[in-house]
Specification:
Largest sheet: 3 strands, antiparallel
Strand content: under 5%
Shape: elongated
Number of helices: 35
Strand order of the largest sheet: 1-2-3
Structural class: mainly alpha
Distance between the termini: 46 Å
Number of strands: 5
Mean pLDDT: 83
Oligomer: single chain
Low-confidence stretches: 1-16, 24-39, 48-78, 510-518, 526-557, 562-566
Radius of gyration: 35 Å
Length: about 575
């Protein structure tokens, strides 16, 4: 075993440093992809039962694609014809053969295309693209004779862009972005809103298309509409589109998206901002702050930290998640950035979140706390001094769902590896040893390593506090020593080496002392048991007895003699 230890020692890491302890969002990116429902949709189809139409009218779209659309022109309500894929050639003729676009045929044709693309199930995006309608939708955006036709064309493009990536790329390939950006300053607010919606869908498709939208100048037009919104609906869609301009990896360059920060801050701190808008604002901040310290500082300089902390008491899961992510990003930065969140009294809000019914909220809360735990001794002290918080974290590590337990393990390990002996002593008093030993048998090698690091730090603290035996006993009582011994057979080199090191340093001395007296010495043809040769016998015994002679097994053929001394 000693040879194996030496052979593998070169790959052994000696603990978790500050950079490892303070983890950014990248560590959990795969899990986040699985939870996109928590973030809201990257793309939205304009198909609702009450979409706003031009001139303030309402287009009530039915599930089959038909609509009660006469309010667009002020007429009486009447259900219009239901179109199908078989009508596409006729509709294509309606938008392609008239040189004068402001005609009832063109308007009805583009509106019929929009209805088809608004169907709830399997809208015929591919059929519409293949018939060659896309360039004509873009051409109809450019005409200035009818805002209704502009609106319907933008709506049709919006729904195509909300579909598969290849459909979104087809919209971009038809050179729609320049016209959509230009119409963000249209005189009609509903045209502006629909164009922003379409641009948001394009930007939400991929980082590449997001950058294409940004380079096309969309940010300026969207911020202009946010600063002077014509309606609550327009504001909502503009902010949602803005959030898609901020999201995605690799991230957009900070100087391109940072002009949005004053607008986001203003909306966040305004009590009159609609709640659904506040949610998209918080998501935008979470995307903008997910990165290096410069990005974090830019967001904190917008004076949003205190408001984000306030929203932790909102009890609205769709708002809690982006607020927690943004604050978690903040505390993954430098010491001052972490301290700003601590100073905003974030620890006053976390206990209810650690007991929240939704697993994702509990997980995000523990992730945020783990980064505070990787901070300065003062920041760790602020955390450890909250017995209610730490008891909840220890309980989470002991019995919550696995995704939450992992984050809770990081909280305790960061305190143990980066805190003081007093911090560790407090954790031990609260039952941290049992919780940490409980994850030593899991399949997640990173968490097993994290738990071993914490236990090793606890034992070091036990030495410093002259309580090593007591801490060893606590570990033994929860079968921790047995679990660490089993890790000597672990296939992961780092876990194997760490387990060997802990056993040899803290649990192996007693066995070595026993072995020293049990192994017989060989002298010639005799075996000597008991007191080793050369050992000094106690004075009271030497005064009455002579030294014991060896117990001699004679060689084969010799007479066996038993010599018990004279």
């Amino acid at each position: 075993m000693a040879g194996r230890t030496t052979e593998r020692m070169s790959s052994f890491k000696k603990g978790i440093d500050a950079k490892d302890g303070r983890r950014r969002r990248d560590d959990t990116r795969i899990q986040i992809r699985k939870n996109k429902r928590e973030e809201g949709l990257m793309k939205r189809r304009a198909m609702g039962s009450a979409a706003v139409g031009v001139n303030g009218g309402t287009v009530n779209t039915n599930p089959d694609g038909s609509s009660n659309a006469s309010s667009l022109s002020g007429g009486s309500s009447a259900t219009t014809k239901v179109y199908s894929v078989q009508d596409i050639p006729q509709l294509y003729n309606g938008i392609s053969t008239y040189s004068h676009v402001n005609t009832p045929v063109v308007l009805e044709s583009v509106r019929a295309f929009r209805r088809l693309l608004s169907k709830e199930d399997n809208p015929p995006c591919e059929d519409v693209i293949q018939c060659g309608a896309l360039p004509h939708f873009v051409r109809l955006l450019a005409q200035q004779e009818s805002v209704e036709i502009q609106f319907e064309s933008a709506w049709a493009l919006t729904n195509i862009a909300s579909s598969k990536s290849e459909h979104t790329s087809a919209v971009v390939g038809s050179n729609a972005i320049p016209l959509l950006v230009s119409l963000l300053q249209s005189g009609d607010p509903n045209v502006r809103e629909q164009c922003a919606w379409c641009l948001g869908n394009i930007a939400g498709d991929s980082p590449e298309l997001r950058d294409t939208v940004l380079s096309g100048g969309a940010m300026e037009g969207i911020l202009l509409n946010i600063s002077t919104p014509a309606s609550a609906s327009l504001l909502s869609n503009m902010v949602w589109s803005l959030s898609n301009l901020c999201r995605g990896k690799p991230q957009p360059q900070l100087h391109v998206v940072s002009p949005a920060l004053p607008h986001l801050s203003s909306l966040l701190r305004n009590d009159m901002t609609p709640k659904e808008v506040v949610v998209d604002v918080a998501w935008s901040l979470s995307y903008l702050s997910d990165g290096d310290d410069q990005r974090i500082q830019a967001c904190q300089d917008a004076h949003v930290t205190g408001r984000l902390v306030e929203f932790l008491a909102s009890n609205q899961p769709n708002l809690l998640t982006p607020c927690l992510r943004t604050l978690g990003n903040f505390v993954s930065g430098g010491q001052d950035q972490t301290q700003a969140v601590v100073d905003a009294s974030v620890l006053d809000h976390v206990c209810p979140l650690l007991a929240y019914p939704r697993k994702n909220i509990r997980k995000e809360t523990c992730w945020m706390l783990s980064n505070i735990a990787a901070g300065t001794h003062y920041q760790v002290d602020c955390l450890v001094s909250r017995t209610d918080v730490m008891s909840a974290v220890i309980s989470a590590l002991s019995g919550d769902q696995w995704d939450v337990r992992k984050e809770a393990a990081w909280v305790l390990s960061n305190i143990c590896t980066g805190g003081t002996t007093k911090h560790i002593e407090k954790l031990v008093e609260m039952g941290a040893i049992d919780a940490l030993c409980g994850v030593m048998g899991v399949q997640d090698t990173k968490i097993v390593t994290v738990a071993l690091e914490a236990i090793e730090s606890i034992l070091k603290a036990g030495e410093a506090l002259s309580r090593l035996n007591g801490y060893v006993s606590l570990i033994d009582e929860v079968h921790g020593i047995e679990k660490i011994e089993q890790l000597q057979e672990h296939e992961n080199d780092e876990i194997y080496e760490k387990a060997i090191g802990i056993i040899e340093k803290y649990f192996g001395c007693e066995d070595e002392q026993e072995d020293e007296n049990l192994v017989p010495e060989i002298s010639g043809d005799t075996f000597s048991f008991g007191i080793p040769s050369g050992a000094k016998v106690a004075d009271d015994e030497s005064s009455d007895h002579k030294g014991l002679a060896p117990f001699n097994f004679a060689a084969a053929g010799d007479e066996m003699q038993f010599n018990f001394g004279s």
